[in-house]
Each structure stands twice: as C-alpha cells, then as structure tokens.
Amino acid sequence: MITGAEAIVKSLENEGVEVIFGYPGATIAPFYDKLNNSKKIKHVLVRHEQHAGHEASGYARIKGRPGVCMTTSGPGAMNLITALGTAYMDSIPMIAITGQVSSDLLGRDVFQEADMTGASEPFTKYSYLVKNAADLPRIIKEAFHIASTGRPGPVLIDIPVNIQNQKIDYSYPNKIDIKGYKPTIKGHAGQIKRVMRALNNAEKPLVCLGGGIFAAEAQEQAKIFIETLNLPVVCTMMGLGAIPTSHPLYMGMLGMHGKSCANQAISEADVVVLIGARVSDRAVLLPKQVGKTTKIIHVDIDPAEIGKNMDTFVPVVGDAKMVIEQILSCTPKRTNEEWVSMLQECKNKVKLDYDPRKFGINPKAFVNMLSKALPDDHIYCADVGQNQIWSAANCDIRTGRFLTSGGMGTMGYSIPCAIGAKIADSTKSVVAVCGDGAFQMQMMELGTICQHDVDIKIVVMRNEQLGLVREIQKKSYKCNYTAVDLSGSPDAVAIASAYGIPGRRVTSMDDAEAAISEMINHKGTFLLECIVDEDEPSI
Amino acid sequence: MRHVLSALVKNEPGVISRVSGLFRRRGYNIDSFIGSSTHDERFSRLTVVVRGDDIVIAQVINQLEKLEDVISIDDIQAENMVSKVLLFMKVKADIDNRVGIITVANACNARVIEMNTESLILEALETEGKISQMIEIFKPYGIIELVKTGVVAMKR
Fold first, then answer.
1. Considering chain A, what is the average pLDDT of its residues?
2. What is the ipTM of this complex?
C-alpha cells in the first residue's frame, strides 16, 4: 500500500516526467513530501504560479511532450488560469496538477478553496476532480494521453489533500480506453483524391502553415511538400518557422501585422491549402470572404476548426504529417513558375526599414541582427505588444523555433517560456524578447533563473510606454494617450544586476552589434536593455 | 432523503449553466434535472431531484435562492405533489414474443408507438417508481435503447 501522493509521483515517473514547474502550499504538501524521494523528477520552483504554467508551456513546445505544472489550491491554482488559457489557445500539451481542500469540505467555502474544475473549464481540454485515490493512476494516464493526442491542450487534475493521504494498492495501467475519444490521424482517402484534383487544377496555389505543423512535428514533410510541388508558402504567427524564413518559396507571415506580399498571395491564390491553422481574425481580417472567392483545402486534426472561420472546399481531418505524406504519395503536379516568380518579385520589392534612428535603436533591425547572430537552431521567444510584431516580421528563423503567445496574446510569456524551453533542451540558445511593460509582469522569474542556473538571453525593448496600446490610441483615438505611460519603470539592467545577472544598456545602433555579441558570448543569463523611441511604429 | 425542488428561473441563456454549476461546485448530488420554458416566456421551470439530509437540502435551497436568476423555489413534499416521468424504450420483439411483450406493456400502462419486424418502441408516462419497475420487467426481453426524462412535478 502506498499513499495517493506517492501514487502521483510514481505515475508521473511512469509517464517519463523529468521536470515539474511548481509552487507548493498546504493542500499539495503531501505530494511535495513524497516528491523529495524521486530521483527522476526535478522540481523548478517558480516565483509566481502563472509562470509555472508558462514554463511548462515553453517546455512542452520544445520537448514535444506535455509540460507539468503544479500549484496549491485556491489562489495558487487560480494564478494558473492565465497560463492554462494561453496554452489552450495555442494547443500546447500540458498537465496542471492542483491541490484542493479535503474532499469532505468541498463546496463549503473553506480556506483556500476554489472551484478549479469549474474555473478552468473553458480553458482546458479536459479536467478531473479526484474523489478516490485508487483512480489516480488511471486519471494520470488518461490525462497525459488526452493532453498529447489529437489537438493537444492542457488537462487539469484537481486533487484534494485527503486523497493524497489515502492508501491504495498501486498499479499503473498500460492500456487506455476512453469511450468516444479517438482522434482521426489518417486523412480520408477520398478527400486526399479531391485535394489532388484541386491542386492539379490550380493555377495559383498557396500553402498556409500554422502551429499544427509543430504539434505534428511535420516541419520536414512540409518542406518536402512545398519544394516538390514548387508551392509558395505563407505562415500564421503560430506557424512562423515551420519553413525557414529565408526560404525562396516563403512569402512571409500572414495577417494584420504580416507581410504585404503574404496577404497579396492569399487574396490572389485560387487554391489555398491550410495546414494546422485556424486562421483567426488576426491572420485574415475577413476569412469568410476569402473562402468565397478561393478554394480552401483545410487540413486539421480538429474537425471543429474546419469551416469555423472559413468556408471550406475540401476538408481533411487528420494529422498534418500523415496527411502531407498521403498527398505527396499521390505525386501531384508542380506549380507553374510564373505565379511563383510573380510572388517572389513582390516579396523582393519590399525594402525593410533598417535605417538607424535619431534616438535609440531600431528594434526591427535589432531583432533581425540578433536572430542572425544566434545559432541556426536558436529558440526565439517573443512577448506580446509591439515587440511581438517587430520580432515576427523581422527575425530570421532557420532551423530553430519562434515561440510566442499567438492566440491569447498573454503579456509576460516570453521569459518563463524561454526558461521552460531551455530546460527542455539545454543544447539550444534561447532568447526572450519583451517590452518594458511585459518585463515587469515577469521579472520575478529572474529569481527562478538564478536558483536553477538557467542560461537564457533576455532583451528588453524600453520605450517607457505600453507601445502597442499607445499606437492604437494614436491611430484610432486621436492621440488621446491614456494610461500608457510607463514612467517609473525600473532600470532593467540594475534589476538584473540585483539578481547577479549581468546586462548592458544599448542606446544606439552603433553599439548593437557589440552588445549582441557580448550577450551571446557570455556564459549564463544576460540582459540587454534597448532604448526605443516611443513613436516607433509596429510595422 | 430525496427532494423534488421546483424552481422558477429567468428564461435567459446561461441560467441552466449557472444552476447546474452551483450543484457541481458545492458537491450536491442530482438524481435528475429537467427544465423548459413556461406559459410566460420570461420564465422557465426547473425541476431538480436532489439527494441529501435536511441540512444539505436547506443549503441547496439557500444557495439557489442567492442566484440572481432564480425567482422562487419550492421544496415539494412527496405526499403533496403530482409527478411523472416519460419513458421511451426500444425492445427486441420478433414474431415469437411480440404478443407477449405487448401484453406485458399493456399491464404496465405502456403504449406501443413504433413497431417493425425486429423491435418495438414503448412509451410510458408514469411515476418514477413504476418506470424503474417497468425497466426491470423488460430487461429479460432485451432492451436495445432507452431514454427517459427526469421527474416533472407540481404541487397539488
């Protein structure tokens, strides 16, 4: 007989969990008591529960397996909700384990009780409230399966403190049987034929890659697909890096903040193959209209996504990697050169504005320079705000990854995401780029970085403004600047140095190259604070 | 103890979710939950069968009354109500046992509403106890599919 708490530790070990991002508390204390005995699981103590979730999310995106985060009940658990919502919107596999008050006290509003299964319901793929310790092994097994299969997403397991102390006979199930849960992996053969016909008849075909490419680990297949058929390709923000940004067939990121030639490509194309993308309002302003004039082939593992935002000509439900291989095996014809060279011409016409600024640095040029200086397989974590748009439009992603909160647009994501990504793969260079607004939502994680000896690079774009909101107020509210002035913000380099993290302030493009190279060559975490003009536009 | 609670609530989106969420959150056990609009389109009537001791039931009623959407709530006593459950049941019935099944159905006050060569569908409107009995009676014949409503009840 072992306790529920020991059963959780063992089950997590059985699932191959190596790291937990967490923050303890009274109702999760029995688990922490037993976690100490585990030789396989390392615990990363965060400084705020939201970041436990974001770190698990960054970890999952690089590891390709669910990240695990853990908190106590009540406020600890509620602090996770933003991270759950962020992961849910970007389809990231995650297991959130929360302590809960004793099951006999549930519903009585006792100290630190919060209805977590209820509160997290819109933001989780599934959730469990454990009422019997004997169910723990099965529930944990199911949770990992649900989180990582089909369209991935976060799963919450809420475990009352008395359940963690219950004694059970432990055995870990090796089979899973969840009634009604069987994600479709292979595309329907008839639909693949229709895809072929549409592609073969297309004059101006286009491929649009979304985050589903990474979820399916289909980067290689996607590249073969577009190269074999000579297909021009665009990405959504979540799909950025699915194809190297310097690839000749790559026309740029789609959308409101994307490249004009990518948007032109989608409006002129006669057939668009969407793979693992849901095409939100940020990607295509009026997706319903595109569907009316263009034949949309939509490949997604989630049948509910198909036809949700766009009218679809050929729906294909299945795993991106599998479906691309199925399409390739039918050897469709190559796209005509004319269409491709027309788009390439349009792409090459656009001159990027990398001129130096009178005041401070040019953030677009800076992120471009930064990503080019980093190794080919670096992981670039962009925050939310102007810095996200500067980064998405200008950074150079070769064989690495671009991680950002695409769907939810959660400020304060980049540093914890970078911590998780680095812990998932310590061989990679990881950089977090954020504004001075978002920096102050996550700077407590510098403590986590120091305690666990994490080596990431941090770039803070400082304009002492909430730049993106300011830009909206400038354009749409007649420059009526309200609550966007961030003066009073601390010196980020001094903050870092208080943690023993070295840093440097960059005030001009003349110093940019040297500063970047100092940061990259420094062994350990390093922070650059870049001074940016408050009127610097996003695009 | 089982209690039949009859709640008059606002007929607006989200009301059912708020009421059922309260039951889940507080860990109250629901036996059945049924709701529909009333003759007055502004209101809906929810009939919920809850299990619990007097203290729990008092809590359920107090908590429900706190919800903005709940207009009034009645704890209907068994001896003072009319209550019924509607049942549809598809039973295996071929040429050999069809007549027998229909005879039993008649004795149970159930009607045959659909029939083909392999099965028939019975309909019954009865008290909850009678409906449970009937299901037991038909199990040996082979129940293919079954659907029933929760309890609907009204004070005499």
1. 95
2. 0.83
How is residue A143 written in tokens?
Answer: 């949770």
Which band of pLDDT confidence, cut at 50, 70 and 90, is reported for residue A311? confident
What ranges make up the beta strands (E) of A420-525?
Answer: 430-435, 457-462, 503-506
A190 touches chain B (CB under 8 A): no
Burial of A80 (0-12, 13-18, 19+ CB in 10 A): buried
Q: Three-state SS for A323?
A: helix
B128-147 pLDDT tens trace: 999 999 999 999 999 999 99
CB contact under 8 A, A115 and B28: no
Q: Which residues contact A91 (CB under 8 A, 6 or more apart)?
A: A151, A152, A153, A211, A212, A215
B32, B64: one domain: yes
pLDDT value of position A291: 66
**Could you list the residue range(s) of the whole structural domain that residue B148 is in?**
82-155
Question: Do B68 and B92 fall into the same domain?
Answer: no
- Dump pLDDT digits (tens) for A121-173: 999 999 999 999 999 999 999 999 999 999 999 999 999 999 999 999 999 99
Would you say residue B4 has pLDDT above 90?
A: yes
Q: Three-state SS for B25? A: helix
Class at the top of the CATH hierarchy for domain A2-168: alpha beta
Q: How confident is the model at residue A286 (pLDDT cuts 50, 70, 90)?
A: low
Q: Which residues does residue A433 pair with via DSSP β-bridges, in sequence order?
A: A382, A459
| A16-55 per-position pLDDT tens digit | 999 999 999 999 999 999 999 999 999 999 999 999 999 9
> Which residues belong to CATH 3.40.50.970 in chain A?
2-168, 363-531
Are residues B86 and B69 part of one domain?
A: no
**Is A106's Cβ below 8 Å from some Cβ in B?**
yes
Homologous superfamily, domain A189-349: TPP-binding domain (3.40.50.1220)
Share of chain A above pLDDT 70, in %: 99
What's the one-letter identity of residue A341? Answer: S
Q: How many residues does chain A have?
A: 539
Residues of A in contact with B27 (CB under 8 A): 106-107
Q: Which residue of B has its CA nearest to A108?
A: B26
Could you tell me how many helices (H) and strands (E) chain A has, helices first? Answer: 23, 20
Residue A115 to residue B27, Cβ atoms within 8 A: no
Cα–Cα distance for residue pair A287/A285, rounded to 1 Å: 6
- By C-alpha distance, the chain A residue nearest B23 is A107
Size of interface A-B (CB pairs under 8 A): 13
Give the mutation candidate from A101, A113, A115, A132 for the B interface (greatest B CB count, under 10 A): A115
Q: Give Cα separations from A473 to A21, A48, A480 (angstroms).
A: 38, 31, 6
How confident is the model over A428-464, as pLDDT tens digits?
Answer: 999 999 999 999 999 999 999 999 999 999 999 999 9
What is the distance in angstroms between the CA of the first residue and the CA of the last residue of chain B? 21
* Token duo for residue B121: 């569908």
What residues of B are in the A interface, CB distance below 8 Å?
Answer: 21, 24-28
CATH code where residue B134 lies: 3.30.70.1150
Q: How is residue A420 written in tokens?
A: 């998780």
pLDDT at A285: 66
Q: Are A158 and A116 in contact (CB under 8 A)?
A: yes
Q: Provide the pLDDT for residue A292.
A: 73
The shortest C-alpha distance from A338 to chain B (Å) reads 54
Calpha distance A347→A352 (Å, rounded) = 11
| Residues of A in Cβ contact (< 8 Å) with B21 | 118
Residue B142, number of CB atoms within 10 A of its CB: 12
pTM, two decimals, is 0.93
